[in-house]
Amino acid sequence: MIAPDALVLGIETSCDETAVAVVRGGREVLSNVIASQARLHSPFGGVVPEIAARAHEELMPQTIDQALQEAGVRIGDIDAVAATRGPGLVGALLVGFSAGKAIASSRGLPFAGVHHLEGHVMAAVLEFGDLEPPYVALIVSGGHTSLLAVREPGLYAPMGATLDDAAGEAFDKIARFLGLGFPGGPEIDRLSEQGDPAAIAFPRAMSGQGLDFSFSGLKTAVVRYVNRMEKEGVEISLPDVAASFQEAIVDVQIEKSLLACEMEGVNTLVVGGGVAANSRLRRRLEEEASARGIRLLVPGRRLCVDNGAMIAAAGHARLVAGESTPLDLSADPSLPLPAPSPA
Ligand code: KG4
Ligand code: ZN
Predict the structure, then answer these.
(1) Residue 144: inside a domain, yes or no?
(2) Do 282 and 189 share a domain, yes or no?
């Protein structure tokens, strides 16, 4: 158990951001350093696991130093440590999880191994304060597209998930196909500003069919469209393709999130994960949620992408509740999210 106002060091290395933060009381972000490796992976058009693990190892000591320095604290001031335990890339996870355990062990501090998705959900606490269940959470990232029902703190009932690619993965793959940079989400987001979202009617996959998602058909439709236009010698508008593709993803995410709220009978929707940084998704969610009287909690962009502050917030909640993670546990690349037991 830790004091409610404890100073927590949060470490995140599940994918390609080496991220460390210092958070007071699970709420006040004193620093939130994100050392992106995008430059290293960009030539490959995707994250290369071995490169990610090596880069985490190289970047970890300086990222911890920078987080402490920016927070204006010393390592001796830290009261507890939280680190992402899973899911994610095994080599990448090991670096941050081991670093967290090493600090906790050498300084005799409480330690929390955090589920990455719980981190994305708890990012909302950093911006909006305590999250009182019940609520629905939509987590959309490079690795996940999940709708979760939260009926009590710390337990996540899965309502829907992707059957194939994650939403962010679809953004990255289509960006790569269109010859844009990596990561693709921000590139498509930017390019779409100059495009017409209604220019091309790409499929809204699994619309009207429950809460699961699928993005492979949409991906194929974009590739087919571009290839057909090229074959016919018709010049395509890249901004129109990007905006229309983005709109198809946004439409489905909004439809299913609102349906999930309706099915759960809740009026609070938490949204997180890298794709929640998308301008169009944010704007449309605001419009649609307010039209339906739903309280929308989407944190700022820096708290949506992978970061250490969300891990510190999630770890703080668990440690304050009296839970902690034994130091002999290892990182787990397929760590399950704590779910309520079946009724
Ligand atoms: O949560 P995150 O940082 O890492 C994972 O847990 O996967 O999400 C990364 C994903 C990438 O696929 C990236 O392309 C996407 O989030 N992303 C975006 C935007 N910013 C990041 N997708 C759409 N629009 C954005 N502005
Ligand atoms: Zn993430």
Answers:
(1) yes
(2) yes
Q: How many angstroms from the chain centroid is the CA of residue 112? A: 19
100 contacts 81 by C-beta, under 8 angstroms? yes
Among 171, 187, 249, 306, name the best residue to mutate to test ligand 1's pocket (greatest count of ligand atoms within 8 A of Cβ): 171
Ligand number nearest CA of 187 is: 1
Tell me, in angstroms, the distance from the centre of ligand 2 to residue 158's CA: 17
Q: Is residue 341 part of a domain?
A: no
Q: Is 15 in the pocket of ligand 1 (CB under 6 A)?
A: yes
Mean pLDDT by 10 residues, the chain (343 residues): 95 96 98 93 88 96 98 98 98 98 98 98 96 97 96 97 96 95 94 98 91 96 97 97 98 97 98 98 98 98 97 98 97 97 79
User: Residues with Cβ < 8 Å from 304, sequence gap 6 or more?
Assistant: 120, 123, 271, 272, 273, 274, 275, 276, 277, 298
> In this structure, are 19 and 120 located in the same domain?
yes
- How many C-beta atoms lie closer than 10 Å to residue 142's C-beta? 26
Number of domains within the chain: 2
Spatial CA neighbour of 147 closest among 184, 169, 120: 120
- Distance (angstroms) between ligand 2 centre and the Cα of 169 equals 12
pTM of whole model > 0.85? Answer: yes
